[in-house]
Amino acid sequence: MTLPPPPSRIAPAMALLRRLRRRPGMPDFHRVAAAIPDERHDRLPDGFSPLHIASWNVHSCVGIDARFAPDRIAAVIRSLEVDVIGLQEVGWHHRGEVGLDQFAFLAAQTGMTALAGPTKHHRTAHYGNALLTRLPVLGHDLIDLSEKLREPRGALAAHLEVRPGVEARVIVAHFGLDPWERNAQVARILAYLDGARPLPTIFMGDLNEWLPSARCLRRLSARFPDCAAPRSFHAKLPTLRLDRIFVSGEACLARYGVVRTKVTRLASDHLPVTALIGVPPVQGGTGSP
């Protein structure tokens, strides 16, 4: 079906960066952002189990060509050949095809297990986060990140078996548009982790934050010492580091980058971020996440 082009977020974001640069005493955010590596190519430490992972905001399966194409999104996911992918903006959201269960469609088309984390509900469809995985799922939780008078937000935390005896937690989230909102959402993520079983943890998603010194990113970095943050938005001209994959200290972030192909530049307004993470052995049997 033909839809009007979706509104772009890159213009207001770049306008804000230009205003910040003009303030006395403010750092050159373009220079600081450019110093962050867009990719890494290291090897895994001996004995660590490989976990191929990705994060992608799929824009309700509506590409920047205004075409609703869930089959195109599924084809990209298959081509990534990852063990786990966290998705944001899955499902109906005042665009796309009402009545199609995008969670079930993407699971069927990729052959992966789909965990759904809807934040909006409609009588014929849902919308929110999803996690697709080829790995055994030992448990999962939904974390409400919604704030009053703001768009409903959430996170999905999955406890996965990477291989027998090796487990990890993967959290996918989509943060809000205001700094105070994102700070409150980070606090809820950290509180959830404080009460959860200790595991090597990967936290990823569209964090809607592009300023390197933002408080929400500093707080996440205190818990997750390594992070993949390549320029992933806008897909047509990647400038902002909105999509990130954070890794806890037990794990190793060996490789990462964005997937920029002819198809991914059209399929969504974000590019997929992929990473190779090494997971160390975890003692203990299966249990709650």
Description:
The protein has helices at 10-22, 29-34, 70-80, 102-110, 179-194, 215-223, 264-267; strands spanning 40-41, 49-57, 84-91, 113-121, 126-133, 137-144, 154-163, 166-174, 201-206, 226-228, 243-247, 252-258, 273-279. The chain is of the alpha+beta class and 289 residues long. The chain has a single domain, classed as Deoxyribonuclease I, Chain A (4-Layer Sandwich). It has a seven-stranded mixed β-sheet with strand order 1-12-13-2-3-5-4, with helices on one face. Strands 6-7-8-9-11-10 form a six-stranded mixed β-sheet, with helices on one face. Helix 3 packs across helix 4 and helix 5 (179-194) packs parallel to helix 6 (215-223). Residues 1-7 and 20-27 have low confidence and may be disordered.
List the helices and strands and how they pair.
Blueprint: H1 10-22, H2 29-34, E1 40-41, E2 49-57, H3 70-80, E3 84-91, H4 102-110, E4 113-121, E5 126-133, E6 137-144, E7 154-163, E8 166-174, H5 179-194, E9 201-206, H6 215-223, E10 226-228, E11 243-247, E12 252-258, H7 264-267, E13 273-279
Helix pairs in contact: 3-4, 5-6
